[in-house]
């Protein structure tokens, strides 16, 4: 990318898109295009096509998607498969038909089989059955990967697909019904402390293992790969270390300064037992994460406190 290339960050108000936007601005990219979902509904092919026709975009970071935690995915599979297939199909196809030079598709590690060997190597894609709680979302993501690969083969495009591990950071979704575990626990422990609640409810058994990458590190990796990677194969983005949900909960309890107990609600799903990514390929391309989980948790908690202030000031609920 040149500093004046026209770059469209799809999903720029979300966790990932906002981090990519900050990174691009920090690095001096000046020609950035952003649209909210109410200005441009990416599920609508006509709106998407006229946007690409009018804008002459050079590069696309496709970070707009229907995203949610384990329970939201499990309860609304139709919304997850429909919205994601529509958004990515419209954007990828319009990008091709309107001469976009390069596009990055954001997938997720839920594309790997539930019981795949650990750590998850890129080559494990399509080698076994998916985790049922997010199968619909994962199938849409796999379709996105295959669409990029197919356009590259047939039309000679340069579309790359990256598979981030579980993410967290500023601008996360803190809605307890739809969020991922880390922002949910920041909110639950904070509210329990404020209200002197004797315990905090943790979904599932607490034994599944997850890996967490700070969103600014992810954005740094995305900009790096956009500039330095051209292969047709997917690339994992992660830190290469994981921990049990129970251990994560104790860390967050400490960060927040909550003194009560943990209670496990085993009526809620555990999901995949483990999702540790193999980052050998990413490291060999020359990129490594730099924020430790302890540092990231402090920053994410500050981000949550700022979010609460904004929520209070504007009465805005994400
Ligand atoms: N969060 C995570 O842990 C992980 C995320 N990812 C991937 O990263 C990408 C971004 O996720 P994340 O930032 O967490 O998600 P968020 O929910 O934080 O943000 C999603 C963004 O997508 C936009 N969007 C949703 N629907 C539409 C639509 N119909 N038209 C236009 N824009 C739309 C929203 O725009 P607006 O705000 O304007 O409504 C929003 O800003 C996704 O592809 C996700 O699969 C991958 C691995 C883990
Ligand atoms: C990124 C990834 O995110 C999703 O997969 P997931 O990793 O299973 O998502 P999660 O963050 O919601 O949960 C992780 C673990 O944590 C436990 N857990 C405890 N207490 C809370 C809690 O309060 N909220 C949530 N959400 N989970 C909790 C929860 O029971 C589970 O064992 C995919 O659907 C898909 O979207 C995807 O790609």
From TrEMBL:
<feature type="binding site">
    <location>
        <position position="210"/>
    </location>
    <ligand>
        <name>substrate</name>
    </ligand>
</feature>
<protein>
    <recommendedName>
        <fullName>GDP-L-fucose synthase</fullName>
        <ecNumber>1.1.1.271</ecNumber>
    </recommendedName>
</protein>
<feature type="binding site">
    <location>
        <begin position="106"/>
        <end position="109"/>
    </location>
    <ligand>
        <name>NADP(+)</name>
    </ligand>
</feature>
<dbReference type="InterPro" id="IPR028614">
    <property type="entry name" value="GDP_fucose/colitose_synth"/>
</dbReference>
<feature type="site" description="Important for catalytic activity">
    <location>
        <position position="110"/>
    </location>
</feature>
<feature type="binding site">
    <location>
        <position position="188"/>
    </location>
    <ligand>
        <name>substrate</name>
    </ligand>
</feature>
<feature type="binding site">
    <location>
        <position position="180"/>
    </location>
    <ligand>
        <name>NADP(+)</name>
    </ligand>
</feature>
<feature type="active site" description="Proton donor/acceptor">
    <location>
        <position position="137"/>
    </location>
</feature>
<dbReference type="InterPro" id="IPR036291">
    <property type="entry name" value="NAD(P)-bd_dom_sf"/>
</dbReference>
<keyword id="KW-0413">Isomerase</keyword>
<keyword id="KW-0521">NADP</keyword>
<feature type="site" description="Important for catalytic activity">
    <location>
        <position position="108"/>
    </location>
</feature>
<keyword id="KW-0560">Oxidoreductase</keyword>
<feature type="binding site">
    <location>
        <begin position="164"/>
        <end position="167"/>
    </location>
    <ligand>
        <name>NADP(+)</name>
    </ligand>
</feature>
<dbReference type="GO" id="GO:0016853">
    <property type="term" value="F:isomerase activity"/>
</dbReference>
<comment type="similarity">
    <text>Belongs to the NAD(P)-dependent epimerase/dehydratase family. Fucose synthase subfamily.</text>
</comment>
<feature type="domain" description="NAD-dependent epimerase/dehydratase">
    <location>
        <begin position="7"/>
        <end position="238"/>
    </location>
</feature>
<dbReference type="GO" id="GO:0042351">
    <property type="term" value="P:'de novo' GDP-L-fucose biosynthetic process"/>
</dbReference>
<dbReference type="InterPro" id="IPR001509">
    <property type="entry name" value="Epimerase_deHydtase"/>
</dbReference>
<feature type="binding site">
    <location>
        <position position="141"/>
    </location>
    <ligand>
        <name>NADP(+)</name>
    </ligand>
</feature>
<keyword id="KW-0511">Multifunctional enzyme</keyword>
<feature type="binding site">
    <location>
        <begin position="11"/>
        <end position="17"/>
    </location>
    <ligand>
        <name>NADP(+)</name>
    </ligand>
</feature>
<feature type="binding site">
    <location>
        <position position="270"/>
    </location>
    <ligand>
        <name>substrate</name>
    </ligand>
</feature>
<comment type="function">
    <text>Catalyzes the two-step NADP-dependent conversion of GDP-4-dehydro-6-deoxy-D-mannose to GDP-fucose, involving an epimerase and a reductase reaction.</text>
</comment>
<comment type="pathway">
    <text>Nucleotide-sugar biosynthesis; GDP-L-fucose biosynthesis via de novo pathway; GDP-L-fucose from GDP-alpha-D-mannose: step 2/2.</text>
</comment>
<dbReference type="GO" id="GO:0050577">
    <property type="term" value="F:GDP-L-fucose synthase activity"/>
</dbReference>
<dbReference type="GO" id="GO:0070401">
    <property type="term" value="F:NADP+ binding"/>
</dbReference>
<feature type="binding site">
    <location>
        <position position="203"/>
    </location>
    <ligand>
        <name>substrate</name>
    </ligand>
</feature>
<dbReference type="Pfam" id="PF01370">
    <property type="entry name" value="Epimerase"/>
</dbReference>
